Amino acid sequence: MGNSKLFPDFIFESSWEVCNKVGGIYTVLSTRANTLQSKLHDKVVFIGPDCWGEKKCPYFIEDKTLFADWQKAVLTSDLKVKVGRWTIPGNPIAILVDFANYYSQKDKIYSRLWELFGVDSLHGYGDYDEASMFSYAAALVVESFYNYYLDSSQKVVYHGNEWMTGLGLLYIRHHVPAIATIFTTHATSIGRSIAGNNKPLYDYLPAYNGDQMAGELNMQSKHSIEKQTAFNVDCFTTVSDITARECAELMDKPVDVVLPNGFENDFVPRGADFTRRRKAARQKLLKVASCLTGTVIGDDAMIVATSGRYEFRNKGIDVFIEAMNRLRFEQGLEKEVVAFIEVPAWVGDARADLKERMDKGSFDGPMEYPMLTHWLNNMGEDKVLGMMRYLGMENAPSDKVKLVFIPCYLTGDDGILDLTYYDVVLGNDLCVYPSYYEPWGYTPLEAVAFKVPCITTDLAGFGLWANGVKGGISTIEDGVEVIHRTDYNYSEVADRIKDTVCRYASFGAAEVKKARANAEKLSKKALWDKFIAYYLEAYDFALRSSENRNKLER
Predict the structure, then answer these.
(1) Would you say 264 and 36 are in contact if contact means Cβ atoms under 8 Å apart?
(2) Which of 20, 130, 248, 433 is deepest in the core (most CB within 10 A)?
(3) Residues spanned by the domain of 507
(4) How many helices (H) and strands (E) does the chain have?
(5) Which helix (H) or strand (E) holds 98?
(6) What gap in Å lies between CA 224 and CA 296, rounded to an integer?
(7) Which string of DSSP letters, residue by residue, matches 443-510?
(8) Which stretches of 9-90 are DSSP H helices?
(9) What is the distance between the alpha carbons of residues 278 and 103, in angstroms, rounded to a whole number?
């Protein structure tokens, strides 16, 4: 019994993405919630920002009967909350908090934060104040709920995600020390900034001073809150070994537990439904490309795609375009290739001329901008269009590789494809995610869940994990090709992508079937029923650290 893991009686977890579908962390939390709910049965409460005001949040159903006595008590305080259920598998309890009324107190809040923990808020700008006030309000929710329903006889954990929750974690650490705290950085703010400013991150990582770089890149406040939170919580975590290295070097704080991002595959269609939807997606994608280019593209064309956030270098969008350009001139390419960039940009309207051509089902020659499905608000400055212009990628009829940019969120109502992102993934034959900076990487994990082999790099947490599962370098035959990437081997990566796509295009039906089966098999090793074990380790670590800390402070 002495070696058994401690498990919380109650968990609070906060994130800007709770009931707010704005980033990959939403997927992490929303897919993990069902596993936690099955273990704690409504003793896990997610806390997110009330970004909706009088409007209805599409991911949340309010329930005034939940904790009705506490809700009534809260009405007499400064807290403004909505209590209900997050409309995801498991339907966990969620509390949305309005934080606008705390802006008037922010100077006092920041001063106290400096006094207690040495956090520099003087250089905060942009979303720093917004995140901090939400974090403060979320902590007040935790404190109020704890004091109303719970006490020190119960094992309680407060888990915050990303630097945006740091202020609240520090508040709880000081004001409710009986609660064990966990902090997860999904990507360090300073590491992302170094990479995003086109500075070499990895070769120079041991030589970088995080505090110095924060000053150089005007990131002092975000870096400060993140670093001080890491040092003062009971358990500091991140999502991959590569980001753990980043934390140790740039924040001078090794992580306590690595929490890889799992997922649930309940959104993956099965059997005949899978086949039907894959066929429909392929037809739609090929039709779009045919109408844009004025070329009849055969059903046997290979569809290749990349997707994710519009981080041109960090997500490897630049090297993907370069690879597709080189593939155009590859003599050994045995199939026609249609490549898609599915990355939300500064999108304007769906192209009415494209829609008209698709509805007619006929065309005579290429369209103006035969690589673009939706108009952009910055046509002249867009990086994807700019690079394609520079390389002379105009989707000429003679090109064996056509490249199409879909610059909108794929929610099923974009006006051109009218397919959800997951339906579009189904239609792909191969996905490419050649990331330079990628702490984990959900997009390749989602791809393999849909039996779509993919290419990624060993600078992505997912890529390193795939290599670990293989016990060596994972290849496209295994379902995932992991390419070695450094600060300086851009050209080599482009060639490796080109060669891998060319090789996959030469596969026979049996080889393709095997690669697709291996991709699906790999995805099942990342389900939450497997990865939740890492969270159990973190809960145990935090609770034991909290016990020891409170003994010393008595």
Answers:
(1) no
(2) 433
(3) 271-526
(4) 19, 17
(5) strand 93-98
(6) 56
(7) HHHHHHHTT--EEEETTBHHHHHHHHHHTS---GGGTEEEE---SS-HHHHHHHHHHHHHHHHT--HH
(8) 24-40, 68-74
(9) 49
CA contacts within 13 A on the Cβ side of 76: 5
211: which 2 tokens? 């505090």
pLDDT at 505: 97
Report pLDDT digits (tens) over 14-45.
999 999 988 789 989 999 999 999 999 999 99
**Beta strands 60-62; 80-86: pairing state:** antiparallel
Is there a domain that residue 2 lies in?
no
- Residue 420's DSSP bridge partners are 411
Bridge partners (DSSP) listed for residue 404: 340
Q: What is the mean pLDDT of residues 5-14?
A: 97
pLDDT at residue 23 in the model: 78
The verdict on 252 and 293 lying in the same domain is: no
Residue found under tokens 């155009």: 328
Task: Say yes or no: 231 and 339 in one domain.
Answer: no
If asked whether residues 541 and 521 sit together in one domain, one would say: no
pLDDT tops 90 at residue 552:
no
What kind and span of H or E run contains 49? strand 44-49
Q: Are residues 187 and 160 in the same domain?
A: yes
β-sheet bridge partners, residue 62: 84
Spatial CA neighbour of 419 closest among 281, 307, 306, 299: 281
Structural tokens at position 2: 């002495």
Domain contains 172: yes
* Whole-number Å distance between alpha carbons of 252 and 271: 50
β pairing state of 401-406 and 44-49? unpaired
Residue of 347, 348, 340, 341 lying closest to 312 (CA atoms): 341
Taking the C-alpha atoms of residue 193 and residue 202, their distance in angstroms, rounded to an integer, is 13
Terminal-residue alpha carbon distance, the chain: 26
Is residue 219 very low, low, confident or very high in pLDDT (cuts 50, 70, 90)? Answer: very high
Residue 4 placed within a domain: no
Q: Are residues 202 and 297 in the same domain?
A: no
491 shares its domain with 546: no
Both structure tokens of 217? 């890149």
Q: How many Cβ atoms are within 10 Å of 354's Cβ, its own excluded?
A: 22
String of DSSP letters for 309-348: S--TTTTTHHHHHHHHHHHHT-TT--S-EEEEEE---SEE
The answer to whether position 1 is within a domain reads: no
Maximum alpha-carbon separation in the chain: 81
Q: How far apart are CA 132 and CA 137, in angstroms?
A: 9
Measured between alpha carbons, how far is 276 from 282 in angstroms, rounded to an integer? 10
Q: What is the total count of domains within the chain?
A: 2
- Residue 74 has a CB neighbour count (10 Å cut-off) of 20
**Sequence-distant (≥ 6) Cβ neighbours of residue 113 within 8 angstroms:** 119, 121, 167, 170
Structure-block tokens of residue 545: 């650290």
| Burial of 106: CB neighbours in 10 Å, binned 0-12, 13-18, 19+ | middle
